[in-house]
Each structure stands twice: as C-alpha cells, then as structure tokens.
UniProtKB/TrEMBL annotation:
<protein>
    <submittedName>
        <fullName>Formate dehydrogenase subunit alpha</fullName>
        <ecNumber>1.17.1.9</ecNumber>
    </submittedName>
</protein>
<comment type="similarity">
    <text>In the C-terminal section; belongs to the prokaryotic molybdopterin-containing oxidoreductase family.</text>
</comment>
<dbReference type="GO" id="GO:0008863">
    <property type="term" value="F:formate dehydrogenase (NAD+) activity"/>
</dbReference>
<keyword id="KW-0560">Oxidoreductase</keyword>
<keyword id="KW-0408">Iron</keyword>
<feature type="domain" description="4Fe-4S Mo/W bis-MGD-type">
    <location>
        <begin position="6"/>
        <end position="61"/>
    </location>
</feature>
<keyword id="KW-0004">4Fe-4S</keyword>
<keyword id="KW-0411">Iron-sulfur</keyword>
<keyword id="KW-0479">Metal-binding</keyword>
<keyword id="KW-0677">Repeat</keyword>
C-alpha cells in the first residue's frame, strides 16, 4: 500500500499449513498491514486470516512478565467453564516475578519430581505454532533433560492416524504431491475437508483447476463451499468412510480398472486387499453409506481413468477411532489405480497448523526421534545417544490423551505424570473431554506454561512464562507441501516477553544440561544446523544461508544445488522393500453412537475466521468483528423439527459436558448432526467430545459423538 512504513520484513503466515509467504509492514514497532509475497505455495495470495489477523500481537492482553501462582490459591478447573477470557483478572491468582525466580522455580520443581518419582513422571507438550528450531530443542530437552520420550503436540489431535497409515503404507508421513499440483489433475478427490475455510489459498488452486476442467469430487458428511465447484458430491453418512471407500476400490477391481502393471511392480499385499473388498460392493454399501451404487461406480471409474487423480483429506478422515483405516483405504484407492508417483496424482493429507508438518519432522512426537526414526530402533537410539551425548530412553513415551490419563493415575502408578512443561499449546481447550483434561492439568504437582496469552491452560499453571509471538521471532516452519520456509523477526516483543528458543535453553541449563547455541535470535541458526544434521536424510541440502537467500525450499533436498522434490515416489516408495504395503480395512463403528437420550451426532471443526482455540484470532480485531460469536449449525429440517429459528439459544449436551450456544442454519450440515467450531471458550465444543482413541494413531474421535439439543 501507499502507507508510510519504517520497514518491510519477510515472513510466513502464522495460521494454516498452506504456508503463504507474507511481508509485514512495520511502523513504530507495530505491524500496520500484511502483504502476500510471491511464495511457491501462495503466489502472493492470502486469505482473510493471513491478511487481517495480525494485531493479536499488539493485544493489551499479551503476557509481558513471568507469573507465579500465589501461595494458597488452588487450581480450579471448574472455574474455567465460567471464565471470561477477555475480562478475567489474573492478579488474584498469580503474582509477577523475575525471570530468574520463575525459571529457577520451574526447573527446580521439575528436577525434584524427576529425581524423586523417576523420569516418566515428567512430560512436555510442544507446539505446531512454534518454529522447527523450537520443536527440535523442546523434544531434545524432554528426551535428554526430563529423561523420557513423553513429548507430544497437537499432531496427535490432527493427522496422527493419517501418518500412522502413511508410514505403514508408503514409508513416509508427508504428502506425495503439493497442493498446486492439482493443476495437473483430471480429478480432485477431496474427503473430510473444508478447504475454503481451513486451507483457503489451497482451495483457490482447486477452484482454478475446476475452472480449467478438472472434476472435483467432494466426499463429506457436511457439504461446504467447495461443493459448489464439485462434479459430484458424496454426502455420505458420518462414520461410514470405510464402507464408501471400500466400495470404490471394489468397483475398480470389479470393472477391471486396476493399473495391473503398477500393482505388480510397486505394491505388496494386493491379494489380501482384493479378498477383503469382496464383501463391499457398491450395491451392498449404498444403504450403509447413503450414496447410490451408481454414483459410487461413476466416481470410481472417473478416478481410475483420470490421467491424474489426487486425493486431499482433512480431519474428517483422521479424527475417528478408525482414522487409520480410513487413510489405509485412501492409500489403497490411489495404489490400485496407479494414481500415485506421478504429477497430478497422489496423497495429500492437508496439514492444519502452520508448522504441524515441521514439528513432527523435528521429533516432537513420543515414538520417534527427528525424521521419524523410531526410539525403539537400536541403530537410531545409538545414533542419537552419540549425537546428543546423553543416555536415552528406548521406550516410546505417552501421547497427548494418554498423558492426561497418566496425570490422573493413582499414586502407586510408577508412570504417573506429575510435572509438565507446555509450550504454546492450549490442551484445556483443544483436548477431547475437557472436564477430564482440565482436572488432569489441575492435578499436576508442577505445571509450567509458556505462551503469549493467559490461555485456559495457563490458568491452571504454577508458573507462566511470557513468550514471543511469531512476528517477534526468526525461525523456520514447514508447510503441508514439505516446504521449509524462513520467517524473520519484524517487531520487538512487549515488556519482558522472551523468545521461546531462549526460554527452552534457560530451563535446559537449569536442569543440568550443557547446551550452547551462540548467535543472534537465541542461536536459531546454530539450532537449525544441528537439526539439519539430525535430519540429514531429508534436508541436508537446505542450509541456513540457503533459506535466507531463497525463503522457501522443498524437501527431500540433499545437496546445495538440489531444487527439492515436489513429487515423491516416482521410482520407489520409502518402505523397506520400496513397495506400497496395501492394508485391508473393515468397518469399525464410532465409539459412541446416537441413541434415544442423545439423538444427534456432534461434528466439531473450524471456520474461516478463527484459528483453533481462538487465542490469537479472537484477539485479532478484524477477524473478531467478522465472526464474533459461537454458533451451532443445523440444517433447516432439524431446526424446524426442534421448533427452532436461527439465532435461538440452545443447550447442546453430551454425556461429558454441555454448552449454551446460538443456532445457525446451514443446509450443508446433514440431518441428525450438529456442527460446532472449537474456537470459542464461552461455548467450548470439546467439553462434549469423546476421548476414545484410534488404536494406531492414538487420535481422539473429535468428529463423532452423541449429543442432545434442547431449547434455552
Ligand atoms: Fe495464512 Fe493459510 Fe490463509 Fe495462507 S491460506 S494466508 S497460510 S491462513
């Protein structure tokens, strides 16, 4: 724009996994506007969040001083239900402290718990909103300082099941093809995803492809905006993914549409898959999934015959107790049709957070070191013990929801979790069954929370450390397309807030670790270079200097002149034998089905203007103005049957909790279901959700539980 600014600083949008490159326009240490930069994922495009969602960084509610819980003030998880995030006064609960006192208290308490109760008594949640360098150092602190692998982050709530299926099937959890490769697709199969709201700039590539003539298929119980561009919409009954997908695979095999050569050369276990889908004809599955057999056959034919057919999916696939099975079916569909390993095809689990790909790559997960090397693998274990010069636990740690259970375990449990370090995540809003999760957090003997706002989780802390917002730091993030992208510090943090990377190091050295990362921005370049060594198999060609020069480099990238690989699996898969391992899946019902008392299905998710638990976007004035209020979406028929009109207030209640919320009419929501975004503290959807887990990915069933709806 023409507005006079002091400086323009290049960075990356802090919200979704699309990874749009931005330029912050800064005046008097304040961001005054944001421009889209010509990055490989966005070509200067931005959505409303990227363009207008920046002034949360300047919110008067920012934490600016370390805080310590006042002695005698109990942790009250029940109070969170009635807490007003915007007006609550934390001075009655916390007192201000110096950095020295706060760090010494937390490090000392965690050390005491570790030395008294053993290494498994501590756990850490890092963040997919932080940089790769923060994720890497955080997991290194937990593994070498806390002494166990009890480290996880919100990937567990997001694509953990997709990654479990992908690691098993194709040997790599990352996407095979980048989003804008849909430019080379004849068919774009979108399932369990609302890209217009959740990956808005990615959605524009899909819409542009449709304009060119590509056929979009939207498969989702809830029909959203992208459905307007679809050649076919498959509004299948919630929870019947496996039935519908197996029917597509059945059709491909039944009608002789398989890519025999591809299966022969590049897949294993096809016979077992073929045997298994025999019971899943479209005719038999139509009454189960609610899609006419003829439509299923049409879609299967078009998918198989396309020169390129790409599958993109979201949490609608992953957040089920059968999430891994859902993803196994998608892998099988791509494989039997030969729609993978070439441009315009492949498998793309759309990553949610801006750095959920990178944080997982960097090892912020309990079963794997950086670059998905299993902690149980003897060679990997030995390599990291040597690399970090510390003894390491060779058993996987607990996952997000398991850690909450372990916090409430009896005293006699040797693995009871008693102390936690939570950096930049808000499990008191984002975990399933919040009443349980909040009690678990409140029961900890020591909880240190590092964040930019007094989150619901921070309210339950012993120590709260004020951290830096994304525009206040320099670091890298990796987007859904496997692009490692550099953001530069644009503004100074407020008050005494400090870089997260600095805080992690301060706690580490106070817990006795001998760390030294010299250089500006808390040694970010030195941390990156150490991480690059730990992940040499995928990013050895991406040096810090190269990132400064190019802003964005796609991995795998193995040498300084390697341009990176936008499409992978062209010749072989990353499995041991180089082939896709096909894994048959059968129907497993949701953990909790509707019944007479709780007749509706609750579907949770996101919306365009607000990001996850809303701690940033609801403090961004423009976004808050556009979408100020929590709403529950119901179709017109259900509103009428319940005698409701849009704008009425209802109570939505599950066996675990309830919220009062305004209703909104949305005819894309199926009859018998209610959709509620989880961004609103005043009507926290996760009070109601079910913590039942997928056995492979350990992801909770956010997308399906039973609720009742009543007026008022
Ligand atoms: Fe940011 Fe995602 Fe919007 Fe791009 S599409 S501007 S990365 S929120």
């Amino acid at each position: 724009g023409s507005q006079r600014v002091d400086k323009k600083v290049d960075s990356v949008c802090p919200f979704c996994g699309v990874g749009c490159l931005v330029t912050y326009n800064v005046k008097d240490n304040k961001i005054v506007s944001v421009d889209g930069r010509d990055g490989p994922a966005n070509h200067s495009r931005l959505c409303v969040k990227g363009r207008f969602g920046f002034d949360y960084a300047h919110s008067p509610q920012r934490l600016t001083v370390p805080l310590i819980r006042k002695s005698g003030v109990a942790k009250d998880p029940e109070a969170l239900q009635h807490l007003n995030r915007d007006s609550a006064d934390w001075s009655e609960v916390f007192r201000e402290a110096s950095w020295e006192e706060a760090l010494a208290l937390s490090a000392g308490s965690l050390k005491y718990l570790r030395d008294t109760h053993g290494k498994k008594s501590l756990a850490g949640f890092g963040s997919a909103k932080g940089s790769n360098e923060e994720a890497y150092l955080f997991q290194k602190l937990v593994r070498t300082g806390f002494g166990s692998n009890n480290v996880d982050h919100c990937t567990r709530l997001c694509h953990a099941s997709s990654v479990a299926a992908l690691l098993e099937g194709v040997g790599s959890g990352a996407v095979s093809n980048q989003v804008n490769d849909v430019a080379h697709s004849d068919l774009i199969f979108i399932i369990g995803s609302n890209p217009t709201a959740n990956h808005p700039v990615a959605a524009t590539w899909m819409k542009n492809a449709a304009k060119r003539g590509a056929k979009i298929v939207l498969a989702d119980p809830r029909i959203t905006d992208i459905g307007k561009y679809a050649w076919r919409t498959l509004q299948f009954k919630a929870d019947t993914d496996v039935a519908m997908l197996n029917a597509l695979i059945y059709t491909v095999i039944d009608e002789g549409l398989t890519d025999r050569d591809f299966i022969e050369k590049r897949a294993s276990n096809f016979e077992a898959l073929r045997e298994n889908v025999k019971g899943y004809s479209p005719e038999a599955m139509a009454p189960i999934c609610g899609i006419p057999a003829q439509t299923l056959r049409e879609v299967a034919r078009e998918f198989a015959r396309a020169r390129g057919a790409m599958i993109l999916w979201g949490m609608g696939v992953s957040q089920h107790v059968h999430g891994t099975d859902n993803a196994r079916c998608l892998i099988a569909l791509s494989t039997v049709t030969g729609q993978i390993g070439k441009p315009g095809s492949g498998l793309h689990p759309l990553r949610g957070q801006n750095n959920v790909q990178g944080a997982s790559d960097a090892g912020l997960i309990p079963m794997m070191y950086p670059n998905y090397q299993r902690v149980t693998d003897k060679a990997a274990h030995a390599w990291f013990e040597d690399f970090w010069k510390m003894p390491l636990d060779d058993q996987p740690g607990y996952t997000v929801v398991e850690i909450m259970h372990k916090a409430l375990a009896p005293d006699s449990d040797p693995h009871k979790v008693r102390g936690m370090y939570i950096m930049g995540e808000n499990p008191a809003m984002s975990d399933p069954d919040l009443n349980h999760a909040r009690h678990a957090l409140a029961s900890l003997e020591h909880l240190v929370v590092q964040d930019i706002f007094m989150t619901e989780t921070a309210w339950l802390a012993d120590v709260v450390l004020p951290a830096t917002a994304w525009p206040e730091k320099t670091g890298t993030v990796s987007n859904t397309d496997r692009m490692v992208q550099l953001g530069q510090q644009a503004i100074d943090p407020p008050g005494e807030a400090r870089p997260d990377l600095w805080i992690i190091q301060q706690l580490a050295t106070r817990m006795g670790l001998d760390w030294n990362y010299p250089g500006e921005h808390a040694g970010v370049a030195a941390v990156y270079e150490e991480m690059r060594q730990a992940m040499h198999a995928v990013i050895s060609g991406i040096s810090w200097e190269r990132l400064q020069r190019e802003s964005s480099v796609t991995y795998p990238c193995l040498s300084a002149d390697d341009p990176g690989a936008p499409t992978v699996f062209m010749d072989r898969f990353d499995t041991d034998d180089g082939r896709v391992k096909l894994v048959p899946a059968d129907i497993i019902p949701a953990n909790e089905r509707p019944d007479a008392d709780y007749p509706f299905v609750l579907i949770t998710g996101r919306q365009l203007e607000h990001w996850h638990t809303g701690s940033m976007t609801r403090r961004a004035t423009v976004l808050d103005a556009i979408e100020p209020m929590a709403t529950a979406s119901l179709c017109g028929a259900d509103l009428q049957a319940l005698g409701l009109a849009a704008g009425d207030v209802v109570t939505v209640q599950s066996r675990r909790g309830e919220v009062a919320i305004h209703v909104r009419r949305d005819d894309g929501t199926p009859q018998g279901a209610v959709f509620i975004p989880f961004a609103y503290y005043e009507a926290a959807a996760n009070l109601m959700t079910n913590a039942a887990l997928d056995p492979f990915g350990k992801i909770p069933e956010f997308k399906y539980c039973a609720v009742a709806i009543r007026r008022g």
